[in-house]
Amino acid sequence: MKNNIDYSLYLITDREMLVDTDIYTAVEEAIKGGVTLVQLREKDISTLDFYNIASKIKTVTDKYKVPLIINDRIDIALSIDAAGVHLGQSDMPATIARSIIGNNKIMGISTSTLKEAQEAERQGADYVGVGAMFPTTTKDDANAVSVHTLKEIKDNISIPVVAIGGITEKNVDLLKIANIDGIAIISDILAKKCVKAAAEKLCASIK
Question: Whole-structure pTM over 0.85, yes or no?
Answer without folding.
Answer: yes
